[in-house]
Amino acid sequence: MYARMKKRGRSSFELRSLVIPLLALIAFTILFFLAGKYFFPEFFSTGFFVYTIQPPGEFKSSETITTCPYTITTSGEYNLTSDLSCGVGNGITIDADDVVLDCLGHKITGLDNNSGIYAYKQNNITVKNCVVEHFKRGIFFINVTDFNIESSTFANNTQRGINFYLGVKNGIILNSKAINNSYCGVRISKLCDNLTFDNITVIGPHSRGGFWINNSANITIKNSDFIDNHKHIFIESHTEDVFINDCEFNRGDDGVYFNNEQIKKIFIKNSQFYGTAYGIHVKNALNDSSINNSLFQNATISFDKSVFNTLIFNNTFNNTVIIIDSSENITLLNNSIQNVPFTAIIIKSVYASTRLIKIINNSIINVGQNGISVDQTGASYITIENNYFNNMSTAISALNIENSYIQSNTMDQISEFGIYLGDLSLENQIKSNSITASKYGIYGTGIQWNIFENNNINANKSCINMNSSFWNTFKNNKLQNAFFCILLKGSVLDKIYATNTTNCYYGALIHESEGVLVDRAIFRDGVFGILLTNSTLVQITEATINNNDKNGVAFELRSFNNSLSDSSITNNQGHGVKLNFFTHHNTISNNEITNNGGYGIYMDFYATSNAIQYNDLSGNTQGTYYEGDFCTGNTFTGNTP
Q1: What is the pLDDT of residues 308-352, one digit of tens each?
Q2: 3-state secondary structure 381-396
Q3: What DSSP assignment string belongs to 242-260?
Q4: In 49-98, which ranges are E strands?
Q5: 45 C-beta neighbours (distance < 10 Å), count
Q6: Longest dimension (CA), the chain
Q7: End-to-end Cα distance, the chain
C-alpha cells in the first residue's frame, strides 16, 4: 500500500509540471493580442493576419498608380485615384498574372500612340471602371487568358478601342463601351476563343467596323447596342461559332457583314436592325448558320455569294429586301415580310447557280412590285410553299427557273400576276395554289415541261395565259371569273386535263398553236366555251361544254387538222360547234351536240373539207347543221338525226 501511494503522488507532480507552463503561454498570448490591438490597430486588422490566411491565387497587396507609363510586375490589386495623362509608350502594362486594375472611373489619356492598357501572355486579369482614350489602341491583349473587362470605356483612339490578338481566350467583357475609335471599336483576330461581350455599346463611325472578328471562334455578343458604325459587326474568314443575341443595330451601312471564306455557325437571334443599309450582308461565304426571332426595319438582307445551309426563321422584315445570290440550301421559314416598296425576295445566280432555296410558311404583304422574284440566271430546285401573299403587283415572278416547286400558296389582292414564269423556265411543278388576281393568275412565256395542277384561280383578265410555251401540262385546275380562263398563244404540245372553267368570257382560247390536247376538261357558264383560231392538230376529247351564252366550240381563222371527239356540247345559247373563216380538214366525231340555241353544226365562209361524223345532233333549236357561203367538200357521216 505504501508503494502504491508513492506512485500516485509522482503522477500528480508530472501533471502539475505541464499545466503551469501551458497556462502561462495562454496568458502571454492574450496579453500580446490585447497590446497589439491597442498599439498597432492597422497591422492587426488589415495586415499580416488577414493576408496570410488567404487561399492561393487571391491578391496579396493593393497599390495606387499615380503616373504613367506604368508597368505592373507583381500580382495584386491596383487602383487609380486620379486621371492619368501619359507620354510615349503604353499607358499601363500588365506584366504579371492575377492582377486587378480598378481605375475607379478615372481616365487614362495618351498621345495617340501605343496602347492604353497592354498585356502579353498573362492570366487571370481584371480591368474595371476605366476610361481609356487617345491611344492607338485603348486596350490591347495578346495571348491573355481568363480575364474580365468591366464597366469601362475605350474612346477616341486612333485605331481600335478593344483589341484582342493571337490566342486571347476565356474572357468576359461586361457593361463596357467603345466609342468613336478611328478603325474599329472591337477587334478580335488570330485564334481567339471563348469570349463573351455582354451589355456593350459600340458607337461609330469606326471606318472598318464597330466589331471586327477574324480567324476566331466561340464569340458571344449579347444585350448590346451598335450605333452609327460603318459595319456594326464585321466577320471575316476562318471564323465560327459566333452568337449574336438580343442586340440592337441602328443606322450605318451594315448590321452584320461577312467577307472571305470559311465562315460558319453564326447564330443571330432576338435582335433588332433599324435603318442600316444592309441588316445582314454576306459578301462571300457563310455556312451552317441561322437568323431568327429578329426585327429588320429598313435593313436589306443580302447573301451575295456562297451562302450554304442557312436557316432564316420567325423574323419580321419591315421595308426590308431579301437578296439571295449564288447560294445553296437556304430556308426562309415563318417570317413576316411587309411594306416593301419594290420586291420583297430576290433570287439570282450571278456567280453560280442558286439552288435548293426553300421559302415556306411566310407572310408577304403590302409589296410594291414582286413578292418573290427569281431573276433570269438559272436558279433551280427552289421550293415556294404555303406562303401568304397579299396586296402586291406580282406574287411570284420567275425567269429561267428549273426543277422547282410552287405549291399550296395563297395569293390575294394581286394587281398583275399571281405567278409569272418566263425565259425557258422548265420542269417546274405549280400545284395547289389559290390565286385571286386583278389581271393574270398564271402567266407563262417561253416555258417548257412544267406541270400546273390543282390550282384554284380567280382572275379578271386570264386565269392561265401561255405564250410560246411547249409541252406543259395543266391538270385538275379550277378557273373562274376571267375574260380568258385559258389563253394559249403560240403553244406547242401543251396538255389540258380535267380542268374546270366557270363563268369566263372564253373558257379556252387557243390561238396560233399546234398539237394542244384538251382532255376531260369542263367549260361551262361562260360566254364562249372553246375557240380555236389559226391553230392546227389540236385535239379536244371527252370535254364537257355546256350552258355558255354563245357557241360551245368554234374553229376559226384557218384552223385546220384539228379534232373534236367524244365530248358533250349541250345547252349553249349559240351554236353547238361553229366552223368559220377558212377552217378546213377538221374532224368532228362521236360527240353529243344537243339542245343548243343555234345549229348543232354551223359552217360559213370558206369552211371546207371538214368531216362531221357519228355525232348526236338532236334537239338544237335552229337545226342539225348549216352550210353557208363557199363551204365545199365537207362530209356528213353517221350523224343523228
Answers
A1: 999 999 999 999 999 999 999 999 999 999 999 999 999 998 888
A2: EEEEECCEEEEEEEEE
A3: EEEES-EEESSSEEEEE-S
A4: 62-65, 70-72, 76-80, 84-85, 92-94
A5: 10
A6: 169
A7: 159
